[in-house]
Amino acid sequence: MAIELIGLNKAFGDKRVLSDFSLRLERGITCIMGPSGKGKTTIVNILAGLIRPDSGEVNIPPDTKFSFVFQEDRLLEWESALTNVTFVTAHPKQNVAKALELLAEADLSDSVNKRARELSGGMKRRVTICRALIADYDIIILDEPFKGLDAKIKPRIMDMVRNHTQGKFALIITHDPAEAEYLGGRLIDI
Amino acid sequence: MQIFTLFIRKLAVVTFWFFVWEATARIVANPIVIVGPVEAFGRLFELAATRDFWSNINYSLVRILFGFVLSLGAGVTLAILCSISKIFNTLITPFINVIKSIPVVSFALLAVMLLSPAILSIFIAFITVLPIIFFNTYNGIQNTDKNLLQMAKVFRVNLFKRIRHIYVPTVAPFVVSAAESGLGFAWKAAIAGEVISLASRASIGGAMQTARSFLMTADLYAWTITIVALSFLMEKAFFLLFGRIKKWQ
Question: Is B161 close to A77, i.e. CB distance below 8 A?
């Protein structure tokens, strides 16, 4: 399976965000780094089909499913951490055990039944990562996934992401060179 | 202790206004123009001892609640359809806007020519509440977090789960708020309609109309107190049953 973005151009009004951008994704982790406003989120949104490029090609196999950690948490604030994780699976009841394992791995065992709105910012972020990891899809996009995590838990969550994305196409957006270095894989600076 | 102080304060306010009311009635000293609380409540207790009083309440209450429930169903259904179909929205929204602007008096007078007195209260309760439920539900649907819907789309979450976990928790508080205020409107409008349209004497409005015709002012006051009390009780009952949904989000 090959995933290619070829010659992408995108402007929002007068502001040109992407100019002839190309990328070939390999299996494993690919980190995209760069300053704000350089179009990193635009790239992943185009890849996931959330926005259309003005021109250029996106070559992915038809019916490819994406798993996504958005820049914002996008949690169901009124539902429990556990429901938020199983929500994205086709059969939530059959995935409870798997969700509980992931939440435990993210050090959230004590909070599985708490509503998302009762969780701290860092805890919410970890729930969104668990949600993305339970959906066992081939392509996983993580847009600043470690934002707001405290230094103590961050390495554990980065290890978790690295372990669960093995053999998959994982595209991670980050501002932090140390994160990219820790995760390994390819690094694309834009 | 605080609750006790609050209770004493409320009691003092009520006593003050009852005193003003009684004093005004005594100064005017004309029981056709105004009766005081002693006479009004006295008459209320007399009426409450009759079977007719309760059957009048039953007659109006059942019809108004039925009209209200119909309107709840129709308002929510129309709002969903308008959110799904632009054509439907273009067709229906102006119609409901017109309904919203028509005074209850017009509906009551028009309805009395078209409908039997037995279903007049149902119709007025229905037509008064429909715009409130419709517009609130429609706004609730439009207010659904687009980011959450996009997240569900990316993860290919099926429609049933989107409705259950995203739309219902978002829209339900809007519907409950609308229903809460709609219930009060339905109650007041339908009884006004019953009075205006000379509906069946078996209704509350009918009983009020009779009292007015025979200058039985104490009866009018007694019925008004009954309406206020029933409205208060319905509001409380509704809050007990559905109040939690408002805090869902």
Answer: no
- Total domains, chain A: 1
Residue A14 lies in a domain: no
Query: How does DSSP assign A92-112, residue by residue?
Result: GGGGHHHHHHHHHHTT-GGGT
Contact in structure between B192 and B104 (CB atoms under 8 Å): yes
Examine residue A76 and state whether it is found in any structural domain, yes or no: yes
Q: What pLDDT sits at residue A154? A: 92
Instruction: Give B140's pLDDT tier (boundaries 50, 70, 90).
Output: very high
Nearest to A87 among B154, B157, B249 (CB): B157
CB A80 within 8 A of CB A117: no
Alpha carbon distance B18, B168 (integer Å): 45
Residue B15: Cβ-neighbour burial (10 angstroms; 0-12, 13-18, 19+)? exposed
The token pair at A56 is 């250029």
Please tell me which of the candidates A50, A65, A79 has its beta carbon nearest to residue B150.
A50
The predicted-structure confidence for B81-126, as pLDDT tens digits, reads as follows: 999 999 999 999 999 999 999 888 888 888 888 888 788 889 999 9
Mean pLDDT of A2-13: 88
Which structure tokens are listed for A103?
Answer: 């939440």
Residue A51 in domain? no
pLDDT at B248: 64
HEC profile of B8-24: HHHHHHHHHHHHHHHHH
Q: What is the CATH number of the domain that holds A183?
A: 3.40.50.300
Contact A68 B148 (CB under 8 A): no
CB contact under 8 A, B161 and A70: no
- In this prediction, residues A13-23 reach a mean pLDDT of 88
Give the sign of the dihedral formed by CA B99, CA B101, CA B107, CA B110.
negative
Which of residues 48 through 87 in chain A touch B, CB cutoff 8 A? 48, 50, 65-68, 70, 72, 74, 76-79, 83, 87
Asked whether residue A46 is assigned to any structural domain, the reply reads: no
pLDDT band at B1 (very low <50, low <70, confident <90, very high): low
Expressed as residue numbers, the domain containing A157 is 27-34+61-189
Contact A172, A30 (CB under 8 A): yes
**Is residue A136 predicted with pLDDT exceeding 80?**
no
Q: Using CB atoms and an 8 Å cut-off, which of residues 43-102 of chain B contact chain A?
A: none
For position B109, what pLDDT does the model report? 83
